[in-house]
Amino acid sequence: MSDLWVKKSIEQLRAESADAEHSLRRALGPVALISLGIGAIVGAGIFVISGIAVQHTGPALVVSVILSGIGCAFAGLCYSEFASMIPIAGSAYTYAYATIGEFLAWIIGWDLILEYAVGATTVSIGWSGYTLSFLRTLHIPFPAELARSPWDPARNIDGTMIHSYFNLPAFFIVAVITALLILGIRESARFNNVVVIVKVGVLLLFIGVCALFITRANWHPFLPANTGTFGDFGWSGVLRGAGLIFFAYIGFDAVSTAAQEARNPERDMPIGILGSLGISTVLYIGVVMVLTGVTPFTRLNVPDPLAVAVDSTSAHWLSPIVKAGAILGTTAVILVMLLGQTRIFYTMAFDGLLPRVFGTVHPRFRTPYKSTALVGFLVALAGGLIPLRVVGELVSIGTLLAFVIVCGSVLAMRKMRPDIRRPFRAPAVWFVAPMGMIVCLAQMVGLPLDTWVRLFVWMGIGFCIYFGYSRHHSLLRAKIGRSSATSVTKTKD
After folding, report:
1. Distance CA 272, CA 87 (A)
2. CB atoms < 10 A from the CB of 316, how many?
3. Which residues pair with residue 113 across a beta bridge?
4. Contact 225, 233 (CB under 8 A)
5. Which domains does the chain have, with CATH numbers?
6. Which tens digit of pLDDT belongs to each residue from 148-162?
7. What H or E segment, with its residue span, contains residue 82?
8. 246-304 pLDDT per residue, tens
9. Are 231 and 56 spatial neighbours (Cβ–Cβ below 8 Å)?
């Protein structure tokens, strides 16, 4: 079983990334990387999940936001060290391959599907909901039979059941973004930059306008007493809220998946990761303070809490703008999630752990077009068929697990390879890395038991694929085997 822990050297990873035939186009600077991170972070989490999380915390949701942000800051420092040291596509999967071996690298690569592909599916369904709500605001009809999953029935206002066949808007948006990603990283980044400017502007407008209508009584009691059940208010509610609102932070690590498309990754990757995380955290604190200040938190348990908050003021003109911002915000998240997933698959295919089709690069666009088309189709199909509640529950726990492994890996790498050049070094790593693991594990503990069960089932499927396919097609393992055979032959001679 010792061959499960075979590792790639950093020197080997750097050499492979320089292979011109398989290389990706380097077109991203620091501003584009920060925008990429904000594009992934600011989306369905703050526009949708905040209304769910506040039902466990009350006005103390801001404490959950800060707690989650601290955990992400620790993880972000560890990601930044790895991204500057190993500027290769693949994110945490690549870092694990260089530090703790192939088997755990496969586990984290499989786990990241929960963040990127399943996350994109979740957000596409949220995009559909906000889009249909916006169309209703404009009095534009849309057939109810093509608006939801067939396993997610709903009721009309008159109480009659609506039986849908397919969520067409969710399928549509993923298909459009997939086509954009195939055309090239530069075009995708330009689109993302425009969307980020608009949605950040919408949130700043929400904070600025609605802050004038804050009623301090809505903040009292700031931390409602626990009901006697873990996760229902009190400090356990803050912990549960942090685990839920963590969904709003998912995406900053997607910057690291674009390392092979950054012009100067050693310098710019830490700027992109930490810059996008810092800006988003400040923005989130302002949004949740205003959100809980303008309306009682009990009214926010809806898919569009920001719109409800706006409607509780006299600034009703802001409601359609907030909905439009949510649509654009979730669009950018889907783009970055799909980009991250295809880059991880690209790297895993290059290592032989997935079929080679996932690593094929288009000769003109320099993008992994076959992988992008396949992943995009599967995500679009899932968005059209699967209910939101099924896919949404897996995303946070999968991402938190990835963060725990990255924090542990950067600590292990400091011990095993202190000689390696690190353009960016996480400060006080002996404190930062363990604290990152502790905070992320605490948020995992706050999630429901059935979410843990689904995680173990998902990992079990991943083990079957690894031992049934990936282990036998690993290029690194094959190379080591050939080297051993050559050594034996020379010894006999």
Report:
1. 13
2. 10
3. none
4. yes
5. 2-483 (1.20.1740.10)
6. 878 776 666 566 677
7. helix 61-85
8. 777 777 777 776 766 777 777 788 888 888 888 989 999 999 999 999 988 888 877 67
9. yes
Distance CA 228, CA 221 (A): 17
Number of residues in the chain: 493
162 SS3 class: strand
Token look-up 């690209």 returns 346
Tokens linked to 331? 């669009």
Q: Answer yes or no: are the C-beta atoms of 401 and 92 closer than 8 Å.
A: no
Tokens 């509780």 identify what position? 312
Q: What is each CA distance from 9 to 109, 369, 390, in whole angstroms? A: 18, 28, 39
Which pLDDT value is given to residue 305? 83
Are 273 and 76 spatial neighbours (Cβ–Cβ below 8 Å)?
A: yes
d(CA 237, CA 59): 11
Nearest CA-CA partner of 320 in 206, 240, 453, 455: 206
Residue 156: the pLDDT is 62
How far apart are the C-alpha atoms of 493 and 211, rounded to whole Å?
Answer: 82
Rounded (10°) CA dihedral 263, 476, 253, 467: 150
pLDDT digits (tens, 9 = 90+) for 402-434: 888 888 888 888 888 888 888 888 889 999 999
Angle formed by the axes of helices 369-385 and 117-137, nearest 10°: 60
CA distances to 57, 64, 105, 292 from 234, rounded to whole Å, are: 7, 11, 38, 16
**Token representation of residue 350:** 């290059």
Identify residue 303 by its one-letter amino acid code: P
Bridge partner residues of 262 (DSSP)? 28
Scored b (16 or more CB within 10 A) or e, 89-117 reads bbbbbbbbbbbbbbbbbbbbbbbbbbbbb
Query: Which positions of the chain have pLDDT values less than 50?
Result: 20-22, 487-488, 491
* Burial category of 151 from C-beta neighbours within 10 Å (exposed 0-12, middle 13-18, buried 19 and up): exposed
Q: Could you give the 3-state DSSP secondary structure of residue 444?
A: helix
pTM of the model: 0.77
Reference 32, options 324, 271, 199, 215; nearest CA is 271
pLDDT in tens, 366-404: 778 888 888 899 999 988 888 766 666 677 788 888 888
pLDDT at 468: 92
Which strand (E) or helix (H) includes residue 154? Answer: strand 154-155
- The label of the residue with tokens 């911002």 reads 325
Compute the distance between CA of residue 355 and CA of residue 351 in angstroms, rounded to an integer. Answer: 9
